Structure formats: C-alpha cells, structure tokens
Amino acid sequence: MYSEEVVFDAGDQKLAGTMIYADNGRRPSIAHLHGLGPTASRHQVRYLLDPLAEHGYGSLTFEYSGNGDSTGVMEESCIARRMAETLAAVSLLDPDEPPLLIGGSMGCHLAASLVPTIKPRGLVFFVPAAYPGGAEHLVFDENRARAGNYADSAAFAGMREFDGDLLIIAGKHDQIVPSDVVGGYLDSARNARSTEVIWLEGDHFVHRWLPGPDWATERAAVQEALLRFVSTDYARR
C-alpha cells in the first residue's frame, strides 16, 4: 500500500486529495465524500481506507472547497457546488470500473443525488443525511438547510434509480440527523441489489470516536463489514 497527494481543479477551486493505492498499483475506483463542517478532513477515514488498500482496493479521499487544504470558503459553498466537486473527484478514478462511493453525512446526500449520473456499483453511507428539494443553492451559513427525512429530497430521488449494493452505518444517538432518515434511504432503495444497516452505540460524529481506543471492537466489526462489502461487490462485477 502507498499513497500520493494530489491537487485537482473543480470550477475555480483547487481541491486537495490523497490517492491510496493497493500494491497492485491499479487506479482506485473508490471515493470517499466527507460531510459538512469546518473540521471535516480527507484524513479522518484513513482508518477505513488503508485496510482496504492492504487487501487490494485503492481509494481517493479529498476535501471539498473550504475544508482542509482545499481552496475556498466553506460558508460560501453549497450542495450544488459540492455536487460539481464530487464529479471532478470521481473523474480521477479508474474509468474502466463503475465507482464505489463511501459517504459521510452530507457526503451521502451528494452520492445519492448523483446516482443517475455516476451510476455507482456500491454505496457505503455513514450517518447519512438528506436535505429538502430546493436546498441545492443555499449557502452553508446560518440559514442553510437542515437534515431530515424529506419526501422531495434529491437524495431519495437518486436512490430510486440505484441498483447496486447499499451498506449503512448509523449512530443510535445521532444528535444531528433524525433516525428516520435511514428509513427514508431504505424506502427509496427498493431497486438495490442488497441493503444492510449496522447500528452503533454512538453519535453523529462517527469518524471522531470510532477510531478511538474505547471502540476497538466496534471498529473492527465495521472494518470487517466494509471489507466484506467491497470484496463481495468486486466479485459481482
């Protein structure tokens, strides 16, 4: 396993990313999409992505504009801009493989909304958020849209076209996203090839606490489930 730091253009912004390669050197076909918040980082999920690379599955993790080492101001961004930035990131993946997307919170909304365009073979959602129709151009200031189980969400519309495999990891004590959002995703994913939900005894900020020493058993279970999901998904291609 080895990694390479990359910078790529998305509109007028330059986004920072890390390509994590398996020893086979193949171009990654997995992308991680982080959530909303000033501390969101491409580095937070290395505890999940590095083990995948060690088993032969490379990935890209990057930061949206206004986060981490990317240019821009987060409060001036919006869902529509992040969707465009997602497409720019996915364009770096192996063009010969349908992508697999791993999302966190808002990253799940982005991945789901882009299903008709990206046509991912698999989706892994951590504490998934969904936002109402018409929220795409609301900037991320104090008046930004709030996560909820909205029937008109673009995420749910996208999921109705999804025919791949879906894995959701949710927190029983999520203080940001209502628990029925998971049900909204499952109800919309009726054409999915498979669905699985893992509930953890934690809050919304899963990538803060799951890597910690007090969560070793749960972390190992999630890593195992993720590896099983990815390897099974590859075998089904």
Automatic annotation (TrEMBL):
<dbReference type="InterPro" id="IPR029058">
    <property type="entry name" value="AB_hydrolase_fold"/>
</dbReference>
<feature type="domain" description="AB hydrolase-1">
    <location>
        <begin position="33"/>
        <end position="222"/>
    </location>
</feature>
<dbReference type="Pfam" id="PF12697">
    <property type="entry name" value="Abhydrolase_6"/>
</dbReference>
<dbReference type="GO" id="GO:0003824">
    <property type="term" value="F:catalytic activity"/>
</dbReference>
<protein>
    <recommendedName>
        <fullName>AB hydrolase-1 domain-containing protein</fullName>
    </recommendedName>
</protein>
<dbReference type="InterPro" id="IPR000073">
    <property type="entry name" value="AB_hydrolase_1"/>
</dbReference>
